């Protein structure tokens, strides 16, 4: 995990250097807290997918380029075989597996998210747009704008992702769900 975060941080710094911007410029232009951005760029802290998505959308680059270091190439279709999506483990608690990494100019970013049980406090994200989650396995505690919801396999939710939202695996078991970020 640590190596993947360091690679993402390196790509963030490379993007910023290529555009001749300061960390403050990126934070202001993307509506991100400057300290949060600098922590992400350091490679020593968790990097939220929502922050990467904000940066990618603002600068019109592929989210995959920041997350995985690969540019999407397909425009007709992109097939992801079971368990074969490009993955990144942002923390020991979350793993994201991209289901459309090779499709360029996508309108949404689908992931299989794996949440491991832990005792840490829930981490909250916000990002522009909307999000859809469908639980595949386990029991997920999802907090959206202060409202806590429990989802089990087959349950789905569509929500305004500009509201603070976070998730936690319940019952000491791993949770897997489909997340589509739009």
Please provide a brief summary of the model.
This is Helix-turn-helix transcriptional regulator. With 182 residues, the protein is of the alpha+beta class.
What does it look like?
There is one protein chain. The protein is α+β, with helices and mostly antiparallel strands and 182 residues long. The protein folds into two domains: 2-67, 434 Repressor (Amino-terminal Domain) (Orthogonal Bundle); 87-181, Jelly Rolls. The chain is built from five helices and nine strands, in the order αααααβββββββββ. The strands form two sheets. Strands 1-2-3-9-4-7 form a six-stranded antiparallel β-sheet. A three-stranded antiparallel β-sheet has the order 6-5-8, with no helix packed on it. The mean pLDDT is 87. InterPro entries: Cro/C1-type_HTH (IPR001387), Cupin_2 (IPR013096), Lambda_DNA-bd_dom_sf (IPR010982), RmlC-like_jellyroll (IPR014710), RmlC_Cupin_sf (IPR011051), TransReg_Diox_bact_type (IPR050807). Residues 12-66 form the HTH cro/C1-type domain. This is Helix-turn-helix transcriptional regulator. Keywords: DNA-binding.
